[in-house]
Design brief:
Pfam families: AAA_33
Organism: Sinomonas cyclohexanicum
Number of helices: 7
Strand content: 5-15%
Strand order of the largest sheet: 2-3-1-4-5
Shape: globular
EC number: 2.7.1.12
Family: Belongs to the gluconokinase GntK/GntV family.
Helix content: 40-55%
InterPro entries: P-loop_NTPase, Therm_gnt_kin
Radius of gyration: 15 Å
């Protein structure tokens, strides 16, 4: 099986970690939760209900790209990657990265976020994330998957797309 570098992307609550882990299993690779690469100041800011700005995100995105580039085999990283410019930062370090965009309705996303006890990201930041989100462009290697489907179905279909 070939090596894949994949970002499971989307706003908070879309299932990046769940689908990302399943996708890594499907591809025979590793999963890394991009949230674990956030500096403590970013986590504190989000936990306080303050959206991150581009200056906050840049070192985090560079860390995501570096982790991807350092992977010796298939790597799936869960990372919001909301803007084209953010995805470009990741691709600077790992140009072959593909993006699996997990997309759903605001209502479903809010419901999922509210059901996550102890997560640092409050539902109040969902609208700022949705406002920031930029769709994948035709020249970006990526595909959109509907989160109304089961995580297992999404991971399977994403693996098929990546291996095609």
């Amino acid at each position: 099986m070939s090596v894949h570098h994949v970002i499971a992307m989307g706003v908070s609550g879309c299932g990046k970690s769940t689908v990302g882990r399943l996708l890594a299993q499907e591809l025979g690779g590793e999963f890394l939760d991009g949230d674990d690469l956030h500096p403590a100041a970013n986590v504190a800011k989000m936990a306080a209900g303050t959206p991150l700005d581009d200056a906050d995100r840049e070192p985090w995105l560079r860390a995501v790209g570096q982790a991807m580039a350092a992977a010796e085999g298939t790597m799936v990283i869960g990372c919001s990657a909301l803007k084209r410019a953010y995805r470009d930062i990741i691709r600077e370090a790992a140009p072959d990265t593909a993006f699996v965009h997990l997309h759903g309705t605001r209502e479903l996303l809010a419901e999922r976020m509210a059901a996550r006890p102890g997560h640092f990201m409050p539902v109040s930041l969902l609208d700022s994330q949705l406002a920031t989100l930029e769709a994948l462009q035709p020249d970006e290697r990526g595909k959109v998957f509907d989160i109304a489907r089961s995580p297992e179905e999404i991971a399977h279909d994403a693996a098929e797309w990546l291996c095609a």
